[in-house]
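[step 3/7] inverse_fold.run input=structure_tokens len=250
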């Protein structure tokens, strides 16, 4: 007989497998609705310039309303597509690769959604791009450390100097010398490192600048403590005791 807990765990695993195999219908439907809203908004915006006062307000309301609907549906499609892609890639490529792919889809999707939404609302994109470029320069200077960790994480994921579960040794001045442990996670900004006593989160930039290698095997002297032998019997014992002197002639 199966216990209720075992049946529940098995059903949860089956549901999870079915969810991973199903197609991303939510993202597909949201994407279709977003495209339809964009087409209607563009058509209404073009017609608003062909008619005079009586129909101008109506066409403007339709154009702006459908532009807002496009932003909503496109955002939903981006989030669902990123989540579904991460679920499909995680069993094959690992957590780190799936997370990077998910973040990339989110960034590209939201950027495209923002640009197209502004275009549908009639906002001049050229001036915003110039202002955004200047803002990006200042933000990049302010967030140099965080961006450095992100790019270092990308290098670690694609170069793969080590994998999750590897026992490695890191040697760098920023780490205070040598650090031995097991890699438990490779994230976007931090590498989680189990040193035996605690789990440490080390910035990716410091890991990338460190010398990485396997933990060398312990030598025989390090593996076993020294044994003191008794000089009289040749057997292991404590420290050698002083020998009594034989009594001389009276």
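[step 3/7] decode complete -> sequence:
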């Amino acid at each position: 007989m199966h216990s209720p807990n075992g049946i529940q765990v098995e059903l949860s695993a089956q549901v999870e497998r079915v969810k991973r195999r199903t197609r991303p219908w939510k993202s597909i439907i949201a994407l279709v609705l977003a495209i339809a809203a964009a087409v209607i908004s563009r058509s209404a915006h073009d017609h608003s310039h062909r008619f005079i006062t009586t129909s101008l307000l109506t066409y403007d309301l339709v154009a702006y309303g459908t532009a807002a609907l496009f932003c909503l549906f496109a955002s939903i499609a981006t989030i669902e597509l990123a989540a579904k892609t991460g679920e499909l890639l995680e069993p094959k490529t690992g957590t780190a690769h799936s997370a990077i792919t998910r973040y990339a889809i989110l960034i590209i999707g939201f950027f495209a959604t923002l640009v197209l939404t502004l275009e549908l609302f009639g906002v001049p994109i050229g001036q915003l791009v110039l202002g955004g470029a200047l803002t990006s320069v200042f933000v990049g200077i302010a967030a140099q450390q965080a961006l450095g960790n992100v790019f270092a994480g990308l290098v670690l994921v694609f170069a793969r100097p080590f994998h999750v579960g590897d026992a490695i040794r890191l040697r760098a001045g920023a780490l205070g010398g040598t650090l031995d442990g097991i890699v438990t996670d490779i994230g976007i900004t931090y590498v989680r490192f189990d040193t035996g006593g605690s789990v440490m989160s080390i910035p990716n930039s410091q890991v990338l600048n460190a010398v990485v290698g396997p933990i060398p095997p312990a030598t025989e002297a390090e593996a076993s403590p020294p044994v003191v032998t008794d000089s009289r019997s040749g057997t292991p014992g404590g420290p050698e005791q002083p020998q009594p002197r034989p009594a001389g002639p009276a």
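[step 4/7] annotate
Residues 152-217 form a domain with the SH3 type barrels. fold (CATH 2.30.30.600).
Confidence is low (pLDDT under 50) at residues 219-223.
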